[in-house]
Model the fold of this input.
Amino acid sequence: MQNNPTFNHQADIVNSAIRFINAWFKQSKAVTDELNDFFILPGNKVIGKDVIIGRLKGIFGRSDEYVGGRYDIIDVNFELLNDDKGMGFVEGVAGYRDVVQKQSKIVSGPFKLYFALYNGGWKIVNIEFPGFSY
Done:
């Protein structure tokens, strides 16, 4: 895929970010489709996708629903490395209403999704998103 000179890496990263964000707003299991098999955290800490999936289930399980999700992508950047690998990010701002027992609160702030290109596809390797914490 990326060996094709017309392949648009930026569009691929942005589309993956959009799918992740939209799945987040729907609290959908599809949110995990965009995740890499492992995450790279500050301090070179590596954790498995299963840990992230468990964390997402815990976050989504505390809320009845998210309403009115909106986001703006402000910046996209990537760098291709040797051996068909790469790294990049998508950043912006996002917000939504977190509804719990008919009470709602606005959750908003900046986000940054970090990506790695591996085995022909861009996958998320680190998440900074309103409402998410490790």
Observations:
- The chain has one domain: 9-128.
- Residues 9-128 form a domain with the Nuclear Transport Factor 2; Chain: A, fold (CATH 3.10.450.50).
